[in-house]
Amino acid sequence: MQEELSGMSGPYDPYDSYGAAPAGADAVLAGLDPEQRAVATALTGPVCVLAGAGTGKTRAITHRIAYGVRSGVYQPQQVLAVTFTARAAGEMRGRLRQLGADGVQARTFHSAALRQLQYFWPRAVGGEVPRLLERKVQLVAEAAARTGLRVQRTELRDLTGEIEWCKVTQIVPDDYPAAVAKTGREAPRDPAEIARVYATYEQTKRDRGVIDFEDVLLLTAAILEDRPEIAERVRAQYRHFTVDEYQDVSPLQQRLLDQWTAGGASLCVVGDASQTIYSFTGATPEYLLHFRTRHPDATVVKLVRDYRSSPQVVHLANGLLAQARGQAAQHRLELVSQREAGPEPEYTEYPDEPTEAESTAHRIRKLLDGGVRASEIAVLFRTNGQSEVYEQALSDLGLPYQLKGAERFFERPEVREAGVLLKGAARAASDPLTADEPDLAGQVRAVLATRGFTATPPAGSGAVRERWESLAALVRLAEEFEAGRRRAGESADLAAYVAELDARAAAQHAPAVEGVTLASLHAAKGLEWDAVFLVGLSEGTLPIIYAKTDEQIEEERRLLYVGVTRARQHLSLSWALSRSPGGRASRRPTRFLDGLRPGSGTARAGSRGGRGGVEHGESRASRRAPRGPVTCRVCGRTLTEAVERKLRRCEGCPSSMDEALYERLRAWRAAQAKKQGAPAYVVFTDATLMAIAEDVPADERELSRISGVGAMKLDKYGAAVLSLCAGEELVDVVADEAADGLVGEPTEPA
Q1: 10 annotated among ligand-binding-site residues
Q2: Taking every annotated instance into account, which residue ranges of this chain make up the domain UvrD-like helicase ATP-binding (predicted)?
Q3: Who contacts 243 (Cβ-Cβ below 8 Å, separation ≥6)?
């Protein structure tokens, strides 16, 4: 059962540096700043981590999970970390493996739900799970045709997006027109027409016996809601949940999460409302912003130490949010840079877009000449349609570039061909191509040389240069792979490298290609570069012209904030006054830079953002104290053995046990066991009695902290135990024990 529910994390963890895991639980905490350490040691939920850009949120939550596992608080198979992309899940798995927390599941919402759906569908519904529809565009086109609607090819993507939005926000076809009116959403066509297409699409799926990705979440949640026995099995499997990027959760995802955690599972969420930029897909920061309302006892930790960006970049980012309005702005975090000072952001106005692109390309060349790698430079824009002029400008200067979101690395023809060649060389017992190469990277170069790879790049740009860059990335990856294995004391041969490539392809974790990145601001989320050029920052483009409502405008501001916080050191912001040379200079720079760029007046003062730190929630009505890592009361070491955790001291450290109290407790326990007709250990084990005699608790809360004293035993025996601890003699118990000779009745080992 456990294997089917958990699935396989895979043989490859993309971010594993092949180094040795920390020596013990306490070593997991080494190197964390105070707020990150607070996250890592807050092992019992609910916990809410508000993490600003570049503050090390992934580091904090992976160390939290690893510390929980290494300290014995978590069983790794009972932990599920959930995020939104396969790449982010792979990063988590790699870091957890490196920290010695093997066995923890890190998955996307869809991946985790699909595994459960596949396992439970035969029991809940019967038969095979319906086939999963990989892409819904074609089916949407058929649905539109069946409704008699003539749809341009370019409109299909918008129609598909509307259907996805409806499903994740749990809007049925009949309610779509009203929902559009209520939310102020800009529908791509008449809402009544879209509702008909949506309804026909759903019917077509049923007729074909297929489901889409949103159905995976919907059906899994429905099974858990309708079948309590199945829900209990899932909840028994997973007791600790971590949700990354919680500001992007949709109502449908929250519905599933509620089912997963309904059995009292521990929940930790992490997010930043100031990076909410996907509301058009149904994502909402409401659950993050109201987490404390839903969980009054939550511990809230704020991460504001920015390790990514220079003070100058952070100052601009803080300035952007200082002018923000709305609910998300009330929860903004004021970042504090931990890096050395860098250059000031540059603001440049150009007469037209071609001039802006050409000048940007020349500035990029200067950075390259100054030693900045092409893969550490990005040009970011609001819409994908802006990329063409920058592609041309970079090509004209012979500068390599890569389009983020274009063809996947491992799907490129030259990469697929290289993979076949490398596999053949790895299988060969003695390959003359690689026989004379002493290291792995040399062997890879030798194999790729048969397809024209050279040590130096070809002149110019275009397809030839792109092919070379892909192969060069495979060579660099071989160098990194070999160096990592060497640090871990392991060998790296061609067969191991081929396995690495296969696993990376499965996880879609491509190596860095040495080219300037061209990407939309949305696609840049989660990435970072040494130098970032934010281009096309004019009214009508950012904010985009169809952003009408206050909340839509604020999301555009957050989009610019995300762009700014991608930069580590160099940041350039530019705009053009006209689209074409000689055109009317009618554009003006984005309003979001008013008061921030030179000559634009004074910035409007905003409320101070949240500072870093920890806020503890109100106590629950339950008297049970939260369970967490146990440290030795004598030497302070984190304890991992069961008996040591019970006694709260190392086996070799001196005991402070009250021997007389221990004997009184044993006598009382023997009498209780006799009355119940049960073994003495059913009341309390020896180790629990020893822990009580060492702690000598004064009240129920202190008693509940002792391992082995659960809520039921606290209710049943708490008053008697506390009376004994207070020195009171329970005459009837002692008399019964003396009469029956029950002292010293054997109990089970602790």
Answers
A1: no
A2: 30-310
A3: 81, 82, 83, 249, 257, 267, 268, 269, 270
